[in-house]
Each structure stands twice: as C-alpha cells, then as structure tokens.
Design a protein that fits this description.
Layout: H1 2-19, E1 25-29, E2 34-39, E3 42-48, E4 70-80, E5 84-89, H2 94-102, E6 112-114, H3 124-127, E7 137-138, H4 141-150, E8 156-160
Parallel strand pairs: 1-8, 6-7
Antiparallel strand pairs: 1-2, 2-3, 4-5, 4-8, 5-6
C-alpha cells in the first residue's frame, strides 16, 4: 500500500512539473491553421486558429487582411481590447518596413493573438471555422485565457506559411 501511495505522489508531482514548464516559443502554421506553444522544442499545447480573411502569403500592407509570416516577438499584452484579451506581435519588423517603404505603402500593424470580439465569444463554435480577422490570429476565449497565462511578454513567435 505504501508503494502505491508513493507512486501516486510521484506521478502527481511529475504531472505538475510538466504543466509548469515555461513556454519559450510560439509556432504558427498558417496552412494547417494551428498555433503551438513550445518549451524546449517540445509541443506543450496546440490550438486551432482563425487567420486574416486573405491568409495566403505574407502581409504586404495595411488592409490586405493577411497574417504576416516570419519571426517576431510577443512584445506586450493588452487586456482592454476590442477582443477578449490580446497579445501583440512585433510586426512590422525592419525588413517589413523597408519592403513597404520601397513599395510606397503602409505596412500596417496592430497584429495580435486574441480571443473573440467582445460580446460574441459564444459564436466561436462557428467563427473559428473561418478566416475572419484583419490579419490577426484568433482563438476561442477560453483558449486565449490559457494562452494569456502561459505565454510571457518577450516570447519569440514564428509564423510559417
């Protein structure tokens, strides 16, 4: 009986440790419409996502409804947003700004990971089947609450085609 109790405590402690691993990288795969939270190269959590309404290709300019592609940083959190919480992606970076300047366009900005539009969280079961944002990455409100708790400001994010 002591062995079983010791084994139970050991399993409980190891599962608690696994859930407390720090997220050190976020990976978005646009073609798969998934976002993964990683720790030490291992996927800890994975979410289905909605993207910009025009998801193919890298964001070129303000209003193109594309989600950018590349390596960025999650640089601040915004609790008071038009959507259920938001974590800002550091788009545009210097390369994006140079490309936009050469094309004489505004690169856009305010690209976020966020939940549903405030007051419409109950529609996530429908809205998450479509790419509906202006270039952001959307998840359900309950998923956003979890992401908010797990992902710290300064975490790198890679957005792949």
């Amino acid at each position: 009986m002591k062995f079983v109790a010791a084994l139970f405590i050991l399993l409980l402690a190891s599962s608690s440790f696994a859930s407390e691993k720090a997220i050190d990288y976020v990976l978005v795969k646009k073609v798969e419409r998934t976002m993964q939270l990683l720790s030490g190269g291992k996927v800890i959590k994975e979410y289905d996502i909605a993207l910009g309404a025009n998801p193919v290709g890298h964001k070129q300019q303000e209003g193109d409804e594309r989600t950018p592609e590349g390596k960025y940083t999650l640089d601040y959190k915004k609790e008071n947003s038009s959507f259920f919480r938001a974590i800002h992606i550091s788009y545009p970076n210097e390369k994006d700004k140079e490309r936009a300047k050469a094309a004489n366009v505004d690169p856009g900005g305010l690209i976020m990971i966020h939940g549903q539009k405030n007051g419409f969280g109950w529609l996530a079961w429908v809205s998450q089947w479509f790419n509906w944002t202006n270039g952001c990455i959307a998840v359900t409100n309950s998923e956003m609450a979890e992401i908010w708790a797990l992902v710290k400001v300064g975490t790198p994010i890679e957005i792949q085609p």
